[in-house]
Specification:
The complex is a heterodimer. Chain A is α/β, with parallel strands linked by helices. Chain A is about 40% helix and about 20% strand. Chain A contains 11 helices and 9 strands. A 9-stranded mixed sheet of chain A has the order 1-2-3-9-7-8-6-5-4, with helices on both faces. The longest helix of chain A is centred in the middle third of the chain and has 17 residues, at about 120-135. Chain A is globular and about 50 Å long. Chain B is about 20% helix and about 40% strand. Chain B contains 4 helices and 10 strands. Chain B has helices at about 50-60, 75-85, 150, 155-165, and strands spanning about 5-10, 15-20, 35-50, 65-70, 90-95, 95-105, 110-115, 120-125, 125-130, 145. Chain B has a 5-stranded mixed sheet with strand order 1-2-3-4-5, with helices on one face. Chain B has a 3-stranded antiparallel sheet with strand order 7-6-10, with no helix packed on it. At the A-B interface, α7, α9, α10 and α11 of A face α1 and α2 of B.
Chain lengths: ~250, ~160
């Protein structure tokens, strides 16, 4: 990756007093802590991308072909193998039974290949199903859920055709959990989840992309290294990508 | 199976046996006059999600004066102990937990119950493991601890640091 890439702004330059617009830029730093990435995304709205240095190529790839990413997030981020045991797709509706859905996810993840990411992928699947099913405004429209994996990386995504997800709310929730701690965030919020779900989804992966076209569709994509231990992964820096809807 | 809490007694102390997924369906019991020392057996907990984490923290927060001893903690809950600040009540200890192993020879995953003070020793803010590999698989197998040793047990050292403070 060349330092001259037109979309890239380096964190060190922001710290030094970069004064240009961050719109459409990728902020890259090898030492952006997860909470700092969230703070950047919140305070520099409408920032597009905050990436950790290791994920720079992947993130630039998303930016360079957003349409492909939105259409096929798994294929856009990783080289898909022929091995069908590494691919899972499921449609569900607002009225679908969560236990049935999670049973199928669990069955897919029972392969030893997923032993280090299994519990986290299951938890993220639970969170995404719950959030998407809850936000369904039409019970006849399906939502899509998928997991694509290769030897290195697992990509998990969920998509709807409603576009009711609010990325700013998700970011604010994550920021609150980082700033106040989960326990205090809970005490100060009477809502059912207190934003812990967004915080978990972000923390468990190494990359989170959220894209919403209001009234049309939402897509959440999470990726993580397949063989990294949970304990190591939660300490890793994260890429955080908020893709604004294109005006049609 | 939905979340259930069954009551029993261990060593003369009241024990709650938590079973099933701790999620938005989970109803924690109303308890008047919680005992000073309570055992919570987590062996049958299958999973926990964000709503369950919230319910867990809220429920345990009601009993500030009770000392909870957690036994048979599955990996799904150990993960939250490490990741979610405030997940473990201030007056609590973890007595035993399931530790994941993987044996390449058998290509099998194993969950082995470790006890704090036996297989797990916490000394001067550091965790030392003491276990017999040959008892995990048997034969000539060489099963490996399938977690990051320093970080998986971090909640134990964090706890001892908090108590020292």
């Amino acid at each position: 990756m060349s330092e001259d890439h037109k979309n890239v702004v380096y964190l060190k330059d922001i710290v030094k007093g970069f004064t240009g617009s961050l719109k459409d830029k990728i902020v890259v730093g090898s030492d952006i802590k997860p909470e700092e990435a969230v703070n950047l995304a919140v305070s520099h709205t409408p920032i597009q991308v905050v990436a950790n240095g290791f994920d720079e190529l992947r993130v630039v790839k998303i930016k360079d072909d957003v349409d492909h990413f939105l259409e096929n997030p798994g294929e856009s981020l990783i080289e898909i193998t022929e091995d069908i045991s590494m691919r899972f797709q499921q449609k569900f509706f607002g009225h679908s039974n969560k236990n049935d859905f999670l049973t199928q996810v669990k069955q897919f993840l029972s392969s030893g290949k997923f032993r280090r990411v299994r519990d986290d992928l299951y938890l993220i699947s639970d969170e995404l199903f719950t959030n998407f099913a809850k936000s369904a405004t039409d019970n006849n429209k399906s939502m899509s859920f998928g997991i694509d994996a290769n030897d290195d990386t697992v990509v998990l995504y969920c998509r709807d055709h409603f576009g009711t997800l609010n990325p700013n709310d998700m970011l604010a929730n994550m920021q609150r959990c980082f700033d106040q701690g989960v326990k205090n965030a809970i005490k100060k919020d009477e809502n059912s989840g207190a934003g812990i779900g967004s915080y978990l989804i972000y923390t468990l992966g190494v990359g989170l992309a959220i894209t919403v076209s209001p009234g049309k569709g939402s897509l959440v994509v999470v990726w993580m290294p397949r063989t990294a231990h949970h304990e190591d992964r939660i300490d890793m820096n994260k890429s955080l990508i908020i893709i604004e809807a294109k005006e049609s | 199976m939905s979340f259930q809490v069954n009551n029993s007694e261990i060593d003369g102390k009241p024990c709650f046996l938590f079973c099933g997924p701790i999620d938005e369906e989970a109803q924690f019991p109303s308890v008047d006059g919680m005992a000073a020392q309570v055992v919570v057996d987590l062996k049958e907990v299958s999973s926990i999600n964000s709503v369950g984490i919230r319910a867990w923290i809220m429920w345990f927060s009601e009993f500030q004066d009770t000392h909870f001893t957690f036994v048979n903690c599955p990996k799904a809950l150990v993960m939250q102990m490490n990741m979610v600040e405030g997940f473990l009540p201030p007056k609590s200890e973890v007595q035993s937990l399931e530790v994941p192993f993987y044996c390449e020879d058998c290509d099998e995953e194993k969950e082995v119950l470790f006890h704090v003070g036996q297989e797990i020793q916490v000394e001067n803010g550091q965790v030392k493991l003491n276990y017999d590999k040959s008892k995990i698989c048997g034969g000539d197998c060489d099963p490996e601890l399938d977690v990051s040793e320093v970080k998986f047990f971090r909640f134990l050292t964090q706890k001892s640091t908090d108590q020292a403070a």
